Batch of 2 targets.
Target 1
Amino acid sequence: MDEGHFCIPGIGGAAVIQLVFFLLVGALLFVSLFFLVRRSSRAEGSAELLFEARQSLNTLQFGLLPAQIVERIFAKDDFAYVLTGSPRPVHELFLKERKKIALCWVSQIRTHILSLKQFHLRSARFYSRVSFWAEINLALEFAALLAACRLLQIMLYIRGPYAAPYVVGAMAAGAAKVCDISEKSLAFLKQPELETLTTRPVGNPTL
Amino acid sequence: MKAVSKRMDVRIAAEDLRRRTLARIERPLDRLIYLASTRDYNTGSYYHEGLASRFTEEVASEAMADCHREAFRDLLSSSLENLVQQMEAYIDSTYTSPSAFIAAWRKLEPYRVAVPVETDLLSAEFLFSNLKIALVILEARLNIRPEAVPVAWPHQ
């Protein structure tokens, strides 16, 4: 046997090529199978993501975005009232407290928007038929909204709670729009038997 | 079907509670404190004997929880000025010294246990913040206009 030449005795070169080819096909099938299994397990695991998305949507719609609460947090008449009849330390405390609340509001909106974004990225297409352009549009909406959140956080942090009323309004409107789109994707969860599970707002009662 | 009927009972019970009991408690702050005081801290259930005798304990508890959430929402939507007025009136109704009341509330923050169970984090935090500011405003007013404190020894 020639030592410098690898060859299985009794099998020609063409047969070896065939063997390698079949091994490659086998490996390819194995990899495909792996990805298929991974994908289906992700679809099963997305039930949790779905529930989180529903909760985020409820918190946004009923806790963070109602005009009543947004107006109260950023109400200038409260500051005017404090300015008229209280000493300076009270003004400072008021601004500090409102800044804390305003930052908490933006931060929570950002968290819930991120949760909805994750839902749309991973699972939405399993539950609803969204066109390619609608997905692109939604991706842009999410990007703009998250950027607005960051911008508002910086402005509130630097200049206080009354720094950017227009950004607050625009952000609330953008978040409401994203909520409407997500509501459609999660509409199938609005069945009466699931209502009791999903309408419960999230939050810690006693902080 | 049973759930629908129970929900209906809860609505009727809540209406009954609003008409008979809560109608006499005008301010949302007073209503919030009253309803929170009827809640068992160990179980989270509300107790109202009269309402439970007319309906069931469970229905009465849910009706009171609904009214508690309503009072919380009303208080949350109050302006700071209105909240200060409510706080002032509440202090008057307790017949305690305003300065002692303010000191106790600032230190113990009893309002933290007065919010409904399912309240979201931001709403609760916002109310606590407003109550804190209202207390500071009232305290500042007291310092400007100190009340006549009765003294044990008459001035010479």
Target 2
Amino acid sequence: MDIGAIWSTLILDPMINSLMWIYSGLAQNFGLAIIVFTVLVRVITYPLTASQMKSTQGMQEMQKSKKWQDIQKKYKGEKEKLAQEQMKLYKEMGVSPFGSCLPTIIQFPVIIGLYQAIIRALAVTPIQLLELTRHLYPFYSAALLIPLNQYFLWLDLSVPEKDYGIMIAGFAIPILAILVMGTTFLQSRLMTPPSTGGEQGANMGRAMTLYMPLFMGYLAYSFPSGLALYFVTSNLVGILQYGLLGKLDWRNLLPSRKSSNEKSKIKKKQT
Amino acid sequence: MKSKQFILILAITIIAVALSACAGGATQASSWPGLTVDEQYAYVAYNTQVYAVDLVNGTEKWRYPGEPDNNITFYSDPSLSEDGQLIVGGYDGVLYSLAADTGQMTGGNWPFSEAEGRYIASALVVEETIFAPAADDNLYALDLDSNLQWTFSSEGESWAQPVTDNECECLYLSSMEHTVYAIDPVSGSQIWQSPTLGGSVVGTPAVSEEGVLYVGTFGGKLFALDAKDGSILWEFTTEGWIWSGPALDDGVLYFGDLDGYFYAVDAQSGTQNWRLTPEQLDGEIVGSPLVLGQDIYVPSQDGNLYKLDTSGKIIWTQTIGGSLFTSPKSANNLILVAPVQTDELLVALNEDGVKQWSFIPAD
């Protein structure tokens, strides 16, 4: 079995058929199917999200701790030793340094699989339609559903918004891309605690908060709108999940907010 | 913290590359070649260009456009008019009229740009009128100078060339929305719409002289419809979904399905004469078979062309390579097949299955 077949069996086929099955139960509205599917994916991957949150919080606490600050002072200039002590402290505090990245990385196959599933399910060309027929499970009447209704609100889910958006002066206004950028920005601001990694860390954090929405907006503008709908829904569900856990920090939306660590450093400098 | 951000940036890069790879380049094929023949040339529409290939030796006579434009792609079978136009629809939503002998758009040739969707189906040319279904759910009727005569709006896209019935003087249009329309070719008004057929009708229907229309569907059924009112006369259940329309010859319908079965069904009664299984013909059957007298040529996804006789016996199997989705055509005692996923764009065989020549477009 080659990697393509494994990918199809484990990721793509279940996604395509889930989407189509949900579509059949939702008045054949593919936009609603994407929204419901996204919510389901976020619910299923919730343990990963929770673990990510826990790890991030643990790392924040560790970096704020007096012990870590003492270690930093003690091994200043001894990079290798500092790293060893850091790992020891991670262990001591029960924090996995990769715990906050791994769940994010695990979600990437979901995004790529969903993108492929949307493109394949909407099948607007003969090759895509033929390909779709090879991925369908026999337990439901997929023939009755094809072709899928690709329209939702003002969106054509099979086409990038740049090709059909509301045109002003020859330029398609990317409403959905703007929504993607807005919700991505909101999510990263609300869910990312202020940096405690010094000036460099803060700069990188700010850069990520700025570039990530731009990157997601670019994807939303360039790829079929179905994917952009997934991004918006996923962002909103993510914010809601964090909100329900009481982890949202609305003060992060204020532009001048700095961590207590940074504040104390600034104070020291001033004195 | 640094390693976390590095991983994040790396992951973003990976996802961007992965999504770009999924989207593919602008020239990635969206379909398989369209193929039409006259006595001298085969016309192949594939990806960014349309080619005229000499039937004698397989050399290229012309190509259009001379330089490929990634925004213009062609996949439907080109159609020839009596006045020497080659009509071919593009995925850019433009119907092109080219001079069949030169491949140029000069003099009386034109582009027709009113459609808002791509042309997946071939246009049908009947005397002085061109009937061109586009993927904007409209069927456009033009005269040979591209003047729009009428537009018929249906409930869904049509991916198949319309077919006409001289006796009834009707035009039949199959629809992805599980139905077939009969249309007055002069006024463009609807005569009837068939009941829902339980699946998309992707292929061109076959029409009998007795006034019966035969359509295969994604619902795994072949229907016989009364050409007068679209009512269902009989239905035949298949193992898999049917992509192309059947070939009708001497009262027998020949067609395949996507599970790899190939059927011969009596056109009068809808009963099965015989069938071949995927163990005998390996691969999906997408294109319509070519029937020449007692010989039936069946293209298969596995890259083989099968020659059968009318009793269902396999006479020979010729491996072409790639996949064969385009219906074979015949001209000058040659059987022409247009494979995909291989370098050869057109392969000519004689009736014994011996390759005569192949055409590979020069870069």
